[in-house]
Amino acid sequence: MHDTEYFKNRLLLLKEELLKRINAIDKDIRHEGMSADWEEQATERENDEVLELLGNASEDELAMINAALKRIDTGEYFECSECGAEIPQSRLELLPFTTHCVSCAEKSEN
Ligand SMILES: [Zn+2]
Q1: Domains detected in the chain
Q2: Do the Cβ atoms of 100 and 108 come closer than 8 Å?
Q3: I need a surface site. Which of 37, 59, 72, 78 has the fewest CB within 10 A?
Q4: Helix or strand or coil: residue 98?
């Protein structure tokens, strides 16, 4: 039996944490009042770039989590999207939003 509820709850928790992180990053980017100091302004801009990269990575992760949740609902979560083989639960434990079994993942890396 697949422990669907367990993985669904796990993904929902991950999603919640991620949304919190995205909100925090958004707030940081929209900081108001630039400092007068030129050097500080440069530092702030650098920070913004880092924050934006972080934000983009989080958005990507969110898309993967949402896709995984959809696969849980359609019953495809435990199947490799490439060959249809069963993805072991131990693998999903480590990579909750993987869509590939080990051998297909290895193939696509090459
Ligand atoms: Zn496969």
Answers
A1: 4-109 (1.20.120.910)
A2: yes
A3: 37
A4: coil
